[in-house]
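DATA SHEET
Item: assembly model
Revision: 1
Owner: S.N.
Input lines:
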Amino acid sequence: MNELIPLMVIVPMMAALLLSAFSKYDKLIRILAFVVAICLPIIPIVSNYGLHFFGGYEPMVDNVTNILYHPAITYSFDFMQQCFIAMIGLLTFLVVFIYLSKYKKVSGPYLFLLFMGTSAATALILTDDIFHMFVFFEILALAQVGIVAASSIEYSYEMALKYMILGAIGSPMMLLGIGFLLAMTGTVNVTDIVAILRGGLLNVTSPVFLLSLGLIFFGWLYASGLPPFHTIKSGIYSKAEPHAAALLQSFTVISMISIVIIMFRIYSSLPIFEVFIVLFSVIAMILGVSMALTQTDFRRMIGFLAVGELGFIGLGIGLGTQFALTAGLFQALNEIVITALLFIGFGAIVHSTNEVDTRKLGGLLAYHPKVGIMLLIGGLAMAGVPPLNGFQSKLMLVQASLSCGYPELSILTIMVSIATFVVFVKTFYSMFLRPKPHDLEVADKEVPKAMVFTMLILLIVIFALGLFPNVVTSGISNYVGGLLL
Amino acid sequence: MKLYDQLFYVVKRFKKLFSPGPVTNADVSGSITAEIFIIVSIVIASLLLRHVSVLLAGFVTLILAVVLITNIPLIPKFRIEQEDSLNKMLFYAIIALGFIVIFLYWGGNLV
């Protein structure tokens, strides 16, 4: 038992409740939010790997079937979880830092939403209990709705409401699927379900089992923003504050990989499951990038690109080999960092110009050269230019699809990367390089130092992961190897 | 000249796509790139059907290529279908759910 494992969820959750309760005391909640935000990336780093059984209920052996049962809600903490929780903790810290330095008076309920979202995303990736996963998936969805609705951007309420209405379709379907699974297996613990399936105690081709896959898969599409939910996902990114959008996309990536790993463990014996993941991922890649090419609102453009990048993650997981899964998870880690950098960088431009239409911008390199260069590097990383981290993961994905016998997917991956590059060249030229339009007023104010600091930190991570990918990939590969046993 | 007229018509349609507001060369270039990208990527993706049947893959790829090219510009149509309308989002969500359930029922036995 490792007592630090549940603290990764409990600390941000308690902080969220306290921040909301003491929202009247501005200075107090500033200090509390800052201290807790610093702790978030530290806890997973100092924690040991292992399992945590809530309530102290250890696993029991059934003497008749000789199967090990897990009566408690179980958290499993390994290298993969450590990477993602540390990364989301770092991002939460940076986002809270930007928020605290941006506003003179901070909002307790808004900080509640940020910390509650982080807590839910952490629980999602730790849990080995499918119903527990659903509960935190719901909490995360509501936190996301709240974060978007709380932004001061026009029509943010409307977009948040639409996201919630679509969630009213996606979430019950997932719950229904979990219900079918519970009815057939009698347990909600994923390890127990897998043991029952491997023991041949359940017919995997039974219509009820297939229906449970379909319904949970549909809920996963909603959680991850893959088609048909790509439009709303890109929409909520564009209507959130830039720093919040950076965190929202990380929530999406975490919920995507957490749920798909659980589905992979349960349903990977069905080839149609992997076919579906590849199919929806390819559609996301094509639609995401082609829509990004036609956008004039750069926040929406990044939103669509983020959705397209999710397709790369799905592709790695859908191919299903150890190397492909490692590539997919590495791509997920990279996407969290790169997209956060882009949202915050473009947020700095909005701060300076109050303009989001690329047609009305220009000549900004003279005003904000540091931001421009950092954004360019972020864009190149997303497009997969060496020696940045995006290159490493995309190269792995190309190799994985080739080794699986799908050269078409390799070609598609390369094409999408090239199209992403085109999007950035176009946008960078429109915003930074071409002559400044006469009617554009660039406020004579510095980009907030907190934003520049955040971009710098994320840039260091991008270079570090690009130059030394083995630091992460070898550990993830070992984790995936255990998953495939 | 007929092909040239058709391409010119495509560019005119792109101009409408960006209204209201000025249309820059970069925007039209982006849309033309998206147009070519979407046609090529759908055709390449359809080649994956060769894992089901080579004949089917060849047939579908040829038909798709012809249908997509004769229907340019595609991007304005795609964009209309992916606007922020709740009705359209709900429509496609239900279609996707139906698609998933039907294909699982049909293909779930392929273990």
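QC remark: The mean pLDDT of chain A is 92.
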